[in-house]
Amino acid sequence: MATDVVIIGGSLAGAACVRELTRLGVDAVAFEREVFPRPKVCGGFVSANAVDCLDRLGLLPAVREAGACTVDHAKIHSAGGELHIPFPRAGLGISRSALDHVVALGTAVQQGTGVQSVRSDADGFTVDTNRSRVRAKVIVDAAGKLSRFSRRLAVAEFGVQYFAEGTRGSALDFWFFHDGYGGAVTVEQARSNFCFLLSKEAIGRYPPRRDRLVTGPLAYEPVSPGSIRIGDAAGMIDPFCGEGIHHALDSGITAAHVIAGGLRNRRSHAEIAQAFNWQWQRRWSRKRLLLAIMRKAVRYPLAVRLALGFRADWFLRRLWATID
Ligand SMILES: Cc1cc2nc3c(=O)[nH]c(=O)nc-3n(C[C@H](O)[C@H](O)[C@H](O)COP(=O)(O)OP(=O)(O)OC[C@H]3O[C@@H](n4cnc5c(N)ncnc54)[C@H](O)[C@@H]3O)c2cc1C
After folding, report:
1. Of the given ranges (234-238, 288-292, 301-305, 313-317), which has the lowest mean pLDDT?
2. Closest Cα to atom 16, ligand 1: which residue?
3. What does the DSSP 8-state code read for residue 241?
4. Closest C-alpha to ligand 1, atom 37
5. pLDDT per residue over 102-111, tens digit each?
6. pLDDT of residue 320
7. Could you report the per-residue pLDDT of 155-191, keeping only the tens digit for each?
8. 26: CA distance to ligand 1 center in Å?
9. Whether the CB of 114 sits within 6 Å of ligand 1
10. Alpha-carbon distances, residue 255 vs 73, 139, 237, 288 (angstroms)
11. Residue from 29, 199, 232 to probe ligand 1 pocket by mutation (most atoms less than 8 Å from CB)
């Protein structure tokens, strides 16, 4: 089999990319080793920017139909007090099993197909999966933070997630504590999605739950960029910022447009990768810098407590406006 584009991973970034490529008339396939719907560790918060991306993909009605709930403010709890911050624009709460299923549905995402190796030669790439061998002109890594196909710097932080009965209304609740931080949001079926970010050694200190999922290590910084990487494969955005889903969808859509233009103009893979990386830097480097500063700041409970004391809502609103 031969195709123009192979995408490794068919979750949010990969499915958005293959959806947009197909719409643009490009022959593309995304290989996803899992079968949707499947559980995934995530805070379940879809920011307003991510909602815009879903809208652009024509998926907003389906996402609402799948049970997404409106989230219009953050409630930050810490030993120093509690702060309510209305969002300038509302986001959504939805589990990743529901969201990823909707985004991949009806696209060229081949589920249950794991990519085992990728080899390049003068004419393109040979991709071996557990099912077949495919030739492609362009390869996109959308295999997430643990992707074997590109490198990131791992940190000793892990994500822990579970569901609980009852809802949080339209709030995104946040807690900061010594071992890390966590959040909860209402998701479909009137239940709450709880998610925490903890250091490796802290995980064992909390009582295990039967339905608890753990993921990690997390990886924020890409090493030696050059290939086409989208979503977490390009480096995670701190979960606290709630912009990872936005980054995954936006980078997937952006890559699709750059690749479609590159193939139309008979550009080489290296030229297309360079054009994509330039676009990605332009769209994301300033935001990522701001979000990385935020990530460092929330690791210090004292900083959070001081911020709450000084009515940090003004600062946070400004920050959100910048990210918008
Ligand atoms: C604890 C935690 C909480 C978070 N909370 C939020 C939040 O509330 N809001 C938010 O916006 N972001 C949040 N994020 C970030 C968000 O989850 C990610 O940014 C997002 O999942 C990235 O999507 P992706 O498609 O790039 O990667 P992933 O969703 O990780 O998908 C990668 C896919 O590639 C597949 N794959 C991997 N290897 C192969 C292979 N060899 N062959 C085929 N398929 C392969 C995997 O099965 C997987 O489905 C959170 C992250 C963590 C860790």
Report:
1. 313-317
2. 244
3. G
4. 143
5. 999 999 999 9
6. 57
7. 999 999 999 999 999 999 998 888 888 999 999 978 9
8. 24
9. yes
10. 31, 11, 18, 18
11. 232
How many angstroms does the Cα of residue 244 sit away from the middle of ligand 1? 8
Q: Ligand 1: which of 17, 29, 33, 42 to mutate, most ligand atoms within 8 Å of CB?
A: 42
Helices (H) and strands (E) in the chain, counts: 9, 17
Residue 99's nearest CA partner among 164, 163, 31, 51 is 51
Sequence letter at residue 302? L
Separation of 216 CA from ligand 1 center, angstroms? 11
For residues 110 and 10, the answer to whether their CB atoms sit within 8 Å is yes
Angle at 103 between CA 131 and CA 289, to 5 degrees: 105
Average pLDDT, the chain: 91
Residue 33 CB less than 6 A away from ligand 1: yes
pLDDT at 181: 87
Whether 180 lines ligand 1, by a CB cut-off of 6 Å, is no
> Considering only CA atoms, which of 233, 267, 277 is closest in space to residue 118?
233
**H-type alpha helices, the chain:** 12-23, 48-56, 60-65, 96-104, 200-203, 244-264, 269-298, 301-309, 313-323
Is residue 255 in contact with ligand 1, taking CB distance under 6 Å? Answer: no
pLDDT in tens, 16-67: 999 999 999 999 999 999 999 999 999 999 999 999 999 999 999 999 999 9
Write the residue with the smallest CA distance to atom 2 of ligand 1: 42
Report the percent of the chain where pLDDT is more than 90: 71
Q: Which residues, in sequence order, are CB contacts of 169 under 8 Å at separation 6+?
A: 186
CA of 93 to the centre of ligand 1 (A): 16
pLDDT of residue 100: 98
